[in-house]
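Supplementary notes for students who missed Thursday's class. We covered one full example, reproduced here. Read the sequence, then the structure, then the short commentary at the end.
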Amino acid sequence: MKITPLPAFSDNYIWVYEKDGEAMVIDPGEAQQVLDYIKEQKLQLKAILLTHKHEDHVGGVEAILETYPDTPVYGPSEVSDLADVLVQEGDTFEQFGQTIHVVKTAGHTEEHVSFIMDKLLFCGDALFSAGCGRVFTGDYQAQFNALQRFKELTDDVQVFAGHEYTLTNLQFAQTVMPESTAVIDELERVRALNNKNIPSLPSTIGLEKEINPFLRAETLEEFIELRKARDSF
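Structure (token representation):
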């Protein structure tokens, strides 16, 4: 099993899960990187997973389907124009001999979902390393609830987020958690990775519990205060 981040736009990641010559693509905002990678690696595309409706996560789907027209596309109701298998909270489906669980993680968008596969979490823009997505819906309760769901996962679950926002998120985290040695250590690590153009992801739930101020927020009010501060950071 191998998971590869394909860079897209300025800071997006398209995740490619591959095993035994087959591949699953998560949130293809662009198509060409995916098509090139599948061809170069001689892979068979088995599925496309979409976490939410934003163009930088779905923009490449139609072009990919032109080349691989029989590929099933899984996603929430807000991407019904692209997905032929609509999923919602509590749904499961099988890929690669494993069960993929669907969790509603709204707030960033109304019907945002995340996919959990064994110890892997594909969370789109609901959770970032040291951060979380902007609450474009205005439904802070929904986003806070999503974070509580993530906190229930075991520490060894790997976090495959949709953007390389880690450095800026850690710089913000340091302003609200100035005594955290975990944040300081992670800042040093991520700066070194960025200098080498190496992705900081995946993270883990265990690490996020230490460095992510939004995941550490204990009340809705605390979360709202943090989110508004990050919005203007």
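Commentary. The chain has a mean pLDDT of 98. The first strand starts at residue 2 and ends at 8. If anything here is unclear, bring it to office hours.
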